[in-house]
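@channel sequence for tomorrow's demo:
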Amino acid sequence: MLIHKGTERLETERLILRKFSVEDFKEVYENWACEDKVTEFLTWASHKNPDETKRTLTGLVKNYKDNDFYNWAIELKGESKLVGNILIVNYRTETREANLEYCLGSKWWGQGIMPEAGMAVIKYLFEECGFNRIGADHDKDNPKSGRVMQKLGMTYEGTLRKAGFSRRGIIDVVWYSILKDEWEGKK
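structure tokens (generated this afternoon):
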């Protein structure tokens, strides 16, 4: 059974995963939302100014009142610095599945931050909320995102040709997933 608990604070060795606040807008803008190389493979374009980020966060924060809304700011412990975000989208109650999405400021790429954040979120979704399957997809031309999925223990499911869209246009989408019983077997 799915038990929606929403965006609860999660901690790892190096990270705090928490709700965004509107006051985070300058840091979000400066650390990733303004970067073209961060948004290259995403569906949204880089923000043109901090006000655009503030408007986005104002709308996002309102959703925290719903227990079925999952969107975490990724904060470096000890530095109180926001470096990215991780969220779930398109959950299905009948099959207890959800899709994971994430982005990270380029200054922090290659440091294992996203796999660490993803592990905490997957653990929470399986163990606390009752999800049975967590999927994720990436643009075929962004294999680094696929490596994050592999580090999360996800299994390659296939490539859907011309089945996705990003700011680059229509794209081939590579799918990965992990099931709860696979997760439990790897613990």
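heads up for whoever presents: The mean pLDDT is 97.
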